[in-house]
Design brief:
With 233 residues, this protein is an alpha+beta fold. The chain has eight helices and ten strands.
Length: 233
């Protein structure tokens, strides 16, 4: 059994070396991050993404492949301590049909999330590459749901301080995205996180318990969350 805690700190040390190198190159000093600001493909690196998240922005790709920074006026979040799960979902989990893992197949999870939105994906190849690197560095994480050793659902997101930014989820078997979300919330509460960002609200996330808050209130939550030092695994 690998030592997960040791792996996290090894990845953190690797990130410090990488990030210091980027700062020496001045990569952040010349970067302008603003609403709907187009991102050149070569600018989408782990350091630029983390810098953006710390400011409340996140990247998305348009159908034509162009990348932009976004910061919605109304931000979707999940109130971690108040979320309730349905009896039917809890019953399904108790049946033990599915196995759960963390960070076992990050790239596959992200790929499935991209493919899950036929023709409408906001996840570009450049994003797939950058977020996979962030996973290797310990800043992006995935939860996988397995049935008979087959990957049937999951989600991924970015962890900074006491904030987890949920990016996307998918299911091949019905309700497995909800199962992944159940374990995400359980893990975040266990590890002391205080903010679960969902970016934009939609019908599915609203069903899961997402609510919208104004950008200035989100900024307050974000700044408080970034003061914490939480570890996802």
């Amino acid at each position: 059994m690998p030592n997960k805690t040791k792996n996290v700190f090894l990845r953190f040390d690797l990130w410090i070396d990488y990030y210091s190198h980027q700062l020496q190159l001045g990569s952040l000093n010349n970067m302008v991050i603003s609403q709907h600001k187009e991102i050149q493909a070569e600018q989408l690196t782990p350091d630029s993404i983390i810098h953006a998240y710390r400011l409340g922005y996140f990247p998305m790709a348009e159908p034509d492949g162009k990348l932009f920074w976004y910061q919605p006026e109304m931000r979707a979040i999940f109130p971690l301590r108040k979320l309730k799960f349905s009896r039917s979902l809890r019953k399904l989990i108790r049946q033990g049909k599915f196995d759960i893992s963390f960070n076992r197949e990050f790239k596959r999870v992200m790929y499935h999330c991209a493919m899950n939105r036929r023709g409408e994906t906001w996840i570009s190849d450049e994003m797939l590459k950058a977020y996979t690197k962030m996973n290797e560095l310990g800043f992006a994480h995935s939860i996988e749901v397995w049935e008979n050793n087959h990957l049937v659902g999951g989600l991924y997101g970015v962890s900074l301080g006491g904030m987890f930014c949920g990016e996307s989820m998918f299911n091949i078997v019905p309700n497995t995205a909800k199962i992944a979300f159940y374990y995400l919330v359980e893990q975040l509460n266990k590890q002391g996180y205080v903010l679960l960002d969902s970016q934009f609200i939609n019908h599915f996330t609203e069903q899961l318990g997402a609510v919208e808050v104004p950008a200035d209130l989100f900024d307050k939550y974000r700044k408080e969350a970034l003061k914490l030092d939480c570890r996802f695994v």
